[in-house]
Design brief:
The structure is a homotetramer.
Chain A (H helix, E strand, L loop, with lengths): L1 H17 L6 H7 L4 H7 L3 H21 L8 H18 L1 H6 L14 H26 L8 H19 L7 H15 L3
Helix pairs in contact in A: 1-2, 4-7, 5-7, 5-8, 5-9, 7-8
The structure holds a DNA duplex.
Chain lengths: 191, 191, 191, 191
DNA sequence: GATGAATGAGTGTTCATTCAT
DNA sequence: TATGAATGAACACTCATTCAT
């Protein structure tokens, strides 16, 4: 059972750094210090190993999103929290969370649509979260009047790039994080 | 000679949509309506075909950046132009320019460092362009006082995501474009 | 594991009869009644398969040379023994020993210099063996006075051709063997 | 027409040094400073190019054998002459004459049996030449009594090895040549 | 749980050869 | 004579996967 964990660990790292196609089952088994057939004992195949990892990553990702503080003093604090959270996530598990934003490997079979479903959930989560924030913030006068839907997209875009940009850097870059937060605050919060 | 162009065309499309590893030489030749060995007559191999395409894409990309209007009324107009340009680029040649921001395929051999050199040039271009804009704009009072280096990074991040996001959509999404521009303007331009 | 032996066996035969370049991996696998990839499970590639076979052949060859009787009544008997041994070797394993004298395939990669090292050992062995024989035999008056170094070369030449000539004949040709021995005896032994 | 000669020249050199299989038509054309299709204008293909070269080489070889002095004082002089001739041949055209003794490439098509016929002629020439020498020499008392047929084989063997051994050395090695002649003289000529 | 041995299907690449000009 | 462009057939090799134990 310990060995199963090694496999997952090695595979996650390799998939994230090299991509699905460039990672071979032999590489995974060697990196995990395990023989190749064991991989097939624990998983149906390379595809299932990937979707399994991806599924877990998305599950944790979404549950972390859900665990964000509900109560905040200002609406911008909600946006700030989400940016901060992503820097934390990447710091904890860079490879796992990076996989949630890489392109879906074209050759991967995903009969249960693990990827598709998760992406949909994630995208809906963001949309509803940011839409709510913006609408309420504008209404209360905290935010300037911005076109809600389009601005939501800009924010999602920025969030994704945090994952992409930071994934393989070792430590939280506080300056980068604060710059992004400040950039958004100036753009949204009314004087 | 016409056939060489077909090969480049097909390869660009496939590399951009499927990735380097998932694209096979036989796929390229079929898509280009050409036999496989012809690919090896015009290029040393799959690797050279890729780096050749990537090199051209970067060359055009960088020359388009250089051709941006030097004279502008305001400093923000310079930033606006660069955002607009990227929407145009993607509209013209979505596959070519998408390749400039995808991850470098780990298994690709690039003995002449086409990729590395181009990325360096591109990154230096952006850094110098945005740094100049911000410094001058702040000095003149057009922009609010922001930490220059960190804000440059935020802008670069946003630009790259325009390429990524829009690459496979057919038409320029004016609303999305204007939202990004407006988002940046509010964040930078002093009232 | 039995199948690994079949591969070696088939490869040896084919390399010896057709040469390295003219022998394809598929031919070897068919001859060995094995699938092609198995060849790559047991050996790194065609090159390593060849050098592995060549290495074993040289090892056995040199150990057989070393096992020659040390004690002989006359010095010529030593030369006679070496000629006889070569007829025996070819009779036992015609393909293996033939490989030790064929030209080194120009396209073969031999990073550990299996071939080069073995050829050097072999050539030094012959030189020292024959030089010793001739010098001692001349001193004792058994042999006529011949220029040692040059005559050594003539003898080596003759030995190699025994391997070459006999390799693909099924049985020891006693007449041919005795003719060579007699030819040498008349040329060397004093009346 | 000059270019045809370049092709033959380059091909001969490459075939001799690398072997038939390891030599590609591209290599030949590059070495000859000619384009590949020209090779097919002058010859039916790689096979015909090889057999053509081989045929010429054999023709010249056999005509040189025929041109040996008929009149000699002693019978051994005839044997001496043939050894000397081979050192000369190799000195003049090392690649051409080397090809006459390399193994016949298994994959080569030779519909007119250029190789087979030439080898037969050559072998018959040697047999008749040496048999005549030995018989006459023994009868006249110049040679010791040796078994003719077997000794002929020994001599042929030695001759072939001269070609093989010397082919890629630049200059005639007089010492080696004299050693071989002396070796044979002692073995054959009666005191 | 775990593994050494084995394989079907495919991958990038090369080669001798031909075609159109 | 001469060549740039093109191809059918084959080649060495890899990969995800399975089987027997």
């Amino acid at each position: 059972m310990k060995k199963k964990f090694y496999i997952i660990d090695a595979a996650t790292r390799l998939f994230a750094t090299q991509g699905f196609d460039a990672t071979t089952t032999i590489q995974i088994s060697e990196e995990a210090k395990v023989t190749e057939p064991l991989l097939y004992y624990h998983f149906k195949g390379k595809d299932e190993l990937y979707t399994s990892i991806l599924g877990s990553a998305f599950d944790e990702y979404l549950s972390r999103l859900d665990s964000l503080k509900k109560e905040t003093k200002t609406w911008f604090e909600k946006i700030e929290n989400i940016i901060t959270l992503h820097f934390q996530l990447i710091d904890e598990k860079p490879y796992d969370f990076y996989l949630t934003i890489t392109n879906y490997p074209t050759r991967l079979k995903d009969p249960e649509n693990v990827y598709k479903k998760s992406v949909k959930r994630q995208s809906e989560w963001f949309k509803s979260y940011f839409t709510n924030c913006l609408k309420k913030g504008i209404k209360s006068g905290e935010f300037v009047k911005v076109p809600v839907d389009e601005t939501v997209n800009v924010l999602v875009l920025l969030i994704k790039d945090i994952l992409r940009q930071q994934s393989f850097s070792p430590k939280i870059d506080k300056k980068a994080m604060n710059a992004i937060i400040a950039f958004c605050r100036r753009s949204l919060v009314a004087k």
